[in-house]
Specification:
Elements lengths: L4 E7 L2 E8 L2 H11 L1 H4 L2 E5 L5 H10 L2 E6 L4 H7 L6 E4 L8 E6 L2 E6 L11 E2 L7 H14 L7 E4 L4 E5 L5 H14 L8 E4 L7 H8 L4 E4 L6 H10 L3 E4 L8
Parallel strand pairs: 3-4, 4-5, 11-12, 12-13
Antiparallel strand pairs: 1-2, 1-3, 6-7, 8-13, 9-10, 9-11
Helix pairs in contact: 3-4, 6-7
């Protein structure tokens, strides 16, 4: 999230809350509100210096293991020192060209990191209706999050804030159900939200489920033999859909 103040809360290698804002304090509160239960004991990453007011709010509202940020004010360090088990890490410029490595029983698989981020000029609108500029920004934000969620990944977002994340399910439609369930549990309004999928929809069932639960805008890679069936479902439900042509599918 390089362009604005951003917070990512990670639990067991999956983001459970992500938000962008003009204010770092606000971005943290929004990210935390996505799923406070899963955030318990999580790792918090922020892209701006942490000040004492945010530090006080964090330790009053959340059990924290690790916080990563470019810097911490002296007052913030003193505040976190009240909780001796919190580890503060200083982030440096990340190398996005590193190889990822997976090993199993002596076999090593190496590939470049997934650095593909959709931009406005990269996405293709395939629906009869067109998303607005702000809705496109939410679509791009949601897909940036989805590519870091273990597949099958579904991310719901609204106003540069995740409101539900479905991760690591064998069935994509189950990930969709979990994402909406999470939003409902936390009292977050899913009406007119965007939905990002890290890989194509094999059937229209995800679209019908998303429409039933209030989603209006979808972003996905495309590439299914049933893409037209999915697009037809989008148009029948008066939704919009953007295709990126880039599959993520994190494992």
């Amino acid at each position: 999230l390089p362009n604005r103040r951003g917070t990512v809360i990670v639990k067991h290698a999956n983001p459970c809350g992500v938000a962008e804002s003009d204010n770092l304090f606000d971005s943290y509160k929004k990210a935390f509100s996505t799923d406070p239960t899963s955030a318990f004991g999580g790792v918090i990453a922020l892209n701006q210096q942490v000040e004492s007011d945010l530090a006080e709010y964090m330790i009053d509202n959340q059990f924290i293991e690790v916080i990563i940020a470019p810097s911490f004010s002296e007052d913030a360090k003193n505040t976190f020192s009240k909780k001796p088990n919190i580890r503060l890490l200083i982030s440096t410029t990340l190398n996005s060209n590193l190889m990822e490595t997976k090993t199993s029983y002596g076999i090593k698989l190496m590939q470049m990191q997934d650095n593909a981020d959709p931009k406005n000029h990269d996405i293709k609108i395939v629906s009869n209706l067109e998303p607005s500029k702000s809705e496109k920004q939410d679509l791009i934000f949601a897909m940036k999050v989805a590519k870091h969620v273990k597949s099958n990944a579904i991310v719901l977002a609204k106003n540069k804030m995740t409101i539900g994340i479905g991760a690591g399910q064998m069935s994509r439609v189950i990930s969709t159900k979990i994402a909406f369930m999470k939003a409902k549990e936390e009292g977050l309004d899913a009406s007119n939200c965007v939905l990002a999928s890290d890989a194509f929809f094999p059937f229209r069932d995800n679209i019908d489920l998303a429409a039933k639960n209030g989603a209006k805008h979808i972003i996905q890679p495309g590439g299914s033999i049933r893409d037209q069936e999915v697009i037809d479902a989008i148009n029948e439900n008066d939704m919009t859909m953007a295709i990126t042509g880039i599959r993520h599918f994190k494992h």
